[in-house]
Amino acid sequence: MEAKELGAFIAEIRKEKQITQAELAKRLHVTDKAVSRWERGVGFPDINTLEPLAAALGLTVPELMRSRREEAPQPLSDRDV
User: Fold this and answer.
1) pLDDT per position as a tens digit, 12-26
2) At what angle are helices 3-16 and 32-40 packed, to 10 degrees?
3) How many angstroms separate the CA atoms of 59 and 74, rounded?
4) Is 0.70 topped by the overall pTM?
5) Residues 34 and 75 sit within 8 Å (Cβ to Cβ)
6) CB 67: neighbour CB atoms within 10 A?
7) Can you give the pLDDT at residue 38?
8) Radius of gyration (Cα) for the chain, nearest Å?
């Protein structure tokens, strides 16, 4: 996992959800400067913050760690059964 890639992903999802850095920081009980550092790729979130961060962004922890959303499994059609 690369800090800049993770940071860009966090920023992208945060903006999609129309959440400010300050709002995200408040939800996670961290400073907005911490969120800014993550998004700029200067550092990583603390390990204890990963689960609440993923939840706040509507992601799973593996999606957050891989910096990409997982595609939803396709439902089985009658032909697949």
Assistant:
1) 999 999 999 999 999
2) 120
3) 18
4) yes
5) no
6) 18
7) 97
8) 15
d(CA 46, CA 64): 13
CA geometry: angle 53, 16, 64, nearest 5 deg: 35
User: Cα-Cα-Cα-Cα dihedral of 59, 62, 68, 69, to 10°?
Assistant: -50
The enclosing H or E element of 11 equals helix 3-16
Q: What residues contact residue 23 under an 8 Å CB cut-off, 6+ apart?
A: none
How confident is the model over 64-75, as pLDDT tens digits?
999 999 876 556
Q: Rounded to an integer, what distance in angstroms lies between the CA atom of residue 15 and that of residue 30?
A: 18
3-state SS string over 15-74? Answer: HHCCCCHHHHHHHHCCCHHHHHHHHHCCCCCCHHHHHHHHHHHCCCHHHHHHCCCCCCCC
